[in-house]
Amino acid sequence: MDDGPDKQSVPPEKKSKKGTIFGGLGVLGVLVLKFKFYIFAGLKALTLLKFGWAFSSLISMGLTIGFYAMFFGWLFAVEFIALLLIHEMGHFIWMKGYGLNPKAPMFIPGFGAFVAMQNMPADEATHAWVAYAGPLVGAVGAAAFYWAGVHMDDHSLMAAGSTGFLLNLIQLVPAKPLDGGFIISAISKWMLIPGTMGLIALAFAFHSTLFLIISVLSAFGLYKQFSRGKNTAYLDGPPAEAPATVSQRIAIGIAYLSLTGMLGYLYWLSHSELISLVPHH
Question: How large is the greatest C-alpha to C-alpha distance in the chain, in angstroms?
C-alpha cells in the first residue's frame, strides 16, 4: 500500500545546502582552535570580575532586553542580547589574555554593547587582535545558535544564528568605531577611507539612524587621524601604540579576509535556507 511521501526524506538540494553550511562551520571551528589559550584565559577571568561593574552590566543587560522586547518580543530580545554578549566576551577573553584588565560588558539600548579595558594595548597588532576576537567568537556563537536550530527544527534559533552572522559581518566593515576599523588600521590607515564611505552608503541604503551616527563618528575620527598624522585617543587609544610589523600585517590581513569571507558565506547560506522554509502559496 502506498502511504504517501516519506516524511523522513529530504530533497537532495536541501541536503547539499545543509552539508555545505556545516562544512563552513567546521572551517570556522579550525580558526577557533588556534586561539584556545585565550578561551581558557577568558573562562578563568570570569571569576575575577568586580561586583560593582558586573552588577551594572546585568542592569544594563536587563534594560536592553526590555527595550528590544517592546519591538520584537521577549524571545528575539533574549536571543539578540545573547548574541551581543557572546561577541563582547570575545573581546573580554582576548583583553584578559593580553593583560589589559577588561571590565564586564555594558549594554546600551538601541546601540549595542562594549567592553572597557583599564590598560590600553602597547601596539597596533595587539589592538587589532583584540578587535578581531569579537567577530570571531561572535561567529562561533551564531554558528551554535544556527546548528541548534537545525537539529531542533527551531526556526527562531536558526533566524537568530543567521542574524548573528550578519551582525558580526557588519562589525568587520573597515571603519571606526567598528571592529573592522581597528583591525584594518593596523595594516594601513588608508584602507579606512573606502570603509567609511561604505558605511555612509549603508546608512543611506538602509535609512538607518544608527549607521548614520556611526558614519559621522567614523568620518570625524578619519579626519583627525589624517590631519594629525597619529591616532585619536577616543577611537584608537594613545598615540604611543607601536606600528605593526610586516609579518603582523600579513597575518592580520589573512585572518581578516578569512573571517569576513566565512561570515559572508555562512550568512548567505543560512539566509537562503530560511527563505526556502517560508511557505509559498
Answer: 81
Distance CA 102, CA 86 (A): 15
Residue 146 sits at φ, ψ, to 5 deg, of -65, -45
d(CA 161, CA 222): 32
Q: For residue range 90-100, what is the model confidence (pLDDT) as tens digits?
A: 999 999 999 99
- Cβ atoms of 237 and 2 within 8 Å: the answer is no
Cα 274 to Cα 265: distance, rounded to the nearest angstrom: 14
Who contacts 160 (Cβ-Cβ below 8 Å, separation ≥6)?
76, 79, 80, 82, 83, 142, 145, 146, 149
pLDDT of 252 reads 97
Which whole number is the average pLDDT over 131-152?
A: 96
Whether the Cβ atoms of residue 31 and residue 258 lie closer than 8 Å to each other: yes
The C-alpha angle with vertex 180 and arms to 66 and 102, in degrees rounded to 5, equals 60
Share of residues in the chain with pLDDT > 70 (%): 75
Q: What residue type is 84 in one-letter code?
A: L
pLDDT digits (tens, 9 = 90+) for 20-69: 555 555 555 555 555 555 555 554 555 444 555 677 888 889 999 999 99
CA distance 187 to 239: 16
pTM: 0.76
Mean pLDDT score, 236-254: 82
